[in-house]
């Protein structure tokens, strides 16, 4: 069957993102339950993105160099299973610090390379990227919801059990997916490094950071915010389920709306929605009020991610696409994750979570302003050409 490879890739994304959601949604609670402070949790949540900055460009370069994404995904999935098992043997702050670094060396490319393969597969098969990628969102949403109830029963200290299960399932599906062969043009370290000399790409990513910092800070501290407002662990699962289900809907319907405007226009709109969302989050008083606001996650992240991914795709040569894709994802989830986690931990200890969300709103607006300037300069340069 022609589209069998697409279905297998969808299944892989489901379990890969299921693994990721357990880490992002519940690991902070695991650390807090072990008696760590807000600053310590912030440092631990920042070490993962720090590892991402190292890991994702490496795995992207290796994928382009050896013309295989599948093989790198399989190696990463094996690494995640081993690291998650090793995590259970650790304790105290410094032990967690080491294992978070090791875990993210393998966990971060699990989804980044999956998205890159999805983009290539979508182009080859004539399928919408959003409709493939939505299965990652569905995995994230479903597993987040179910894990909330599971941990309410077995205790958050056993969070590694569901994580290992999902990682093993991701590995099994990774063994069944198909590679998409690129060009035969050789890839060297020099050619990959030249991506960093693309001024247009670098300015775009700089603007993206101001928005993605807010997204990643919320990823790290949403669970703590809900619990701080008096909500149960199961409500965290519902919050992620609502938000990521809306995200999946945006991905699924992307063929209907995406091509109607310039991708940069969608990115700016998404940035505005982000800023409004964070201000409203800082104003709520009941944990249940998080749920309706989570609906805007689908519009803000879903629209932003598809548009930005496609825009970056236009700025890089075909034989370096995996490297370019993970560079964007490294910026969004890695660099921004470090700043978001460290700044968030400092804000929580000094001023509280509500103040954090108001600051996130300001950061998103700064990013939007930068993108509007970038968009205007791009139009002027295009007209001059």
From TrEMBL:
Membrane topology category: Multi-pass membrane protein
Domain Major facilitator superfamily (MFS) profile residue range list? 1-185
Transmembrane stretches, start-end:
12-31, 43-61, 73-90, 96-114, 135-154, 160-180, 201-218, 264-284, 290-312, 324-343, 355-374
Q: Where in the cell is it found?
A: Cell inner membrane
Cell inner membrane found in the keyword field: yes
Family matches, as PROSITE patterns: MFS (PS50850)
Q: What would you give as a GO molecular function for this chain, any one?
A: lactose binding
**Keywords on this record?**
Cell inner membrane, Cell membrane, Membrane, Transmembrane, Transmembrane helix, Transport
Q: Does the keyword Oxidoreductase apply?
A: no
Q: Name one GO cellular component term.
A: plasma membrane
Name the domain of life. Answer: Bacteria
Q: InterPro entries of this UniProt entry?
A: HcaT-like, LacY/RafB_perm_fam, MFS_assoc_dom, MFS_dom, MFS_trans_sf
> Which residues does UniProt assign to the signal peptide?
none
Q: What is this protein called?
A: Major facilitator family putative sugar symporter
């Amino acid at each position: 069957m022609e589209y069998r490879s697409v279905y297998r890739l969808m299944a892989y994304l489901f379990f890969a993102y299921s693994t990721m959601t357990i880490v992002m949604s519940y690991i902070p609670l695991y650390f807090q339950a072990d008696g760590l402070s807000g600053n310590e949790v912030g440092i631990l949540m920042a070490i993962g993105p720090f590892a991402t900055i190292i890991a994702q460009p490496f795995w992207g370069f290796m994928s382009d160099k050896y013309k295989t994404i599948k093989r790198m995904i399989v190696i990463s999935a094996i690494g995640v299973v081993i690291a998650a098992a090793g995590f259970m043997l650790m304790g105290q702050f410094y032990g967690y610090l080491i294992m978070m670094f090791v875990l993210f060396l393998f966990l971060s490319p699990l989804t980044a390379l999956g998205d890159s393969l999805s983009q290539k597969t979508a182009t080859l098969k004539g399928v919408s990227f959003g409709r493939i990628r939505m299965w990652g969102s569905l995995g994230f949403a479903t597993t987040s919801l179910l894990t909330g109830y599971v941990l309410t029963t077995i205790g958050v200290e056993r969070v590694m059990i569901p994580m290992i299960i999902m990682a093993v399932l991701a590995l099994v599906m990774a063994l069944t997916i198909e590679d998409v062969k690129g060009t035969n043009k050789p890839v060297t370290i020099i050619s990959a490094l030249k991506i960093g000399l693309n001024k247009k790409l670098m300015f775009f990513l700089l603007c993206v950071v101001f928005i993605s910092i807010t997204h990643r800070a919320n990823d790290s501290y949403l669970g703590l915010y809900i619990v701080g407002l008096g909500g149960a662990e199961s409500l965290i699962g519902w919050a992620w389920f609502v938000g990521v289900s809306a995200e999946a809907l945006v991905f699924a319907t992307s063929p209907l709306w995406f091509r109607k405007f310039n991708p940069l226009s969608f990115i700016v709109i998404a940035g505005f929605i982000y800023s409004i969302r964070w201000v409203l989050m800082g104003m709520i008083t009941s944990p249940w009020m998080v749920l309706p606001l989570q609906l805007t996650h689908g519009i803000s992240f879903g629209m932003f991610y598809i548009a930005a991914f496609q825009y970056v795709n236009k700025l890089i040569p075909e034989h370096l696409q995996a490297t370019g894709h993970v560079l964007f994802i490294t910026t969004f989830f890695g660099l921004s994750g470090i700043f978001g986690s460290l700044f968030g931990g400092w804000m929580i200890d000094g001023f509280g979570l509500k103040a954090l969300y108001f600051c996130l709103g300001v950061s998103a607006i700064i990013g939007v302003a930068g993108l509007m300037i970038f968009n205007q300069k791009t139009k002027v340069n295009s007209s001059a050409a």
